[in-house]
Write a structure and sequence with these properties.
3-stranded mixed sheet; 8 helices; Four Helix Bundle (Hemerythrin (Met), subunit A); globular; 3 strands; mainly alpha
């Protein structure tokens, strides 16, 4: 029987809590967090060896390697969804199963270098795109078929600022608990 995993291992910065609205300054800060994710993530993981990349916060949980590949997959999808929402005003997007993607061969075994490079360029490009949107664009939406909800771009920004910070903190916690800290 698996032991109970402390909630702070799963949600080291707390569960996602999206407010009903954000100020312009809060939006700028969240866009900055999206842009700067790799400036803290890359130094944390770039020197890890294969054994360290296989560490997880719980038995049978995602490894550090899978989390890094997941960040690239997830944020790439979110960026494209934002672009479609701006283009169409309200886009119908395709969903994807992030659990299945994380279990694919590349998610489980590929070197992290390519995902870090992809994520680094993506985060800068996405942040630039978001920073230059008009206020009205922040209310453009997409329909998320997996959750059956309509999602405005301002909510995507809040979600993915949290998402990047969440997974960064998970990885940092894994390393700290395994006596490996930069």
């Amino acid at each position: 029987m698996e032991s109970q995993v402390p909630i702070e291992y799963i949600y080291p910065i707390g569960k996602k809590d999206i407010k009903s609205s954000y100020s312009a300054d809060e939006m700028k800060e969240m866009i900055s967090q999206i842009k700067e994710l790799c400036s803290k993530l890359i130094p944390l993981v770039e020197i890890l060896d294969d054994k360290q990349l296989e560490l997880s916060y719980r038995p049978n949980g995602w490894t550090i390697r899978q989390i890094i590949h997941h960040l690239a997959d997830s944020h790439m999808n979110a960026y494209i969804r934002c672009k479609l929402a701006v283009e169409q005003g309200h886009a119908n997007i395709l969903g994807y199963n992030h659990e299945v993607w994380a279990e694919m061969k590349d998610g489980k075994t590929a070197p992290i270098y390519s995902s870090l490079k992809l994520l680094e360029g993506l985060q800068h490009r996405w942040a630039w795109f978001l920073k230059h949107l008009e206020e009205a664009d922040l209310n453009k939406t997409y329909f998320h078929p997996e959750y059956g909800t309509t999602v405005p771009i301002w909510e995507v920004i809040a979600t993915y600022a949290w998402h990047g910070n969440h997974h960064y903190a998970q990885i940092k916690g894994i390393l700290e608990r395994n006596s490996f800290f930069i």
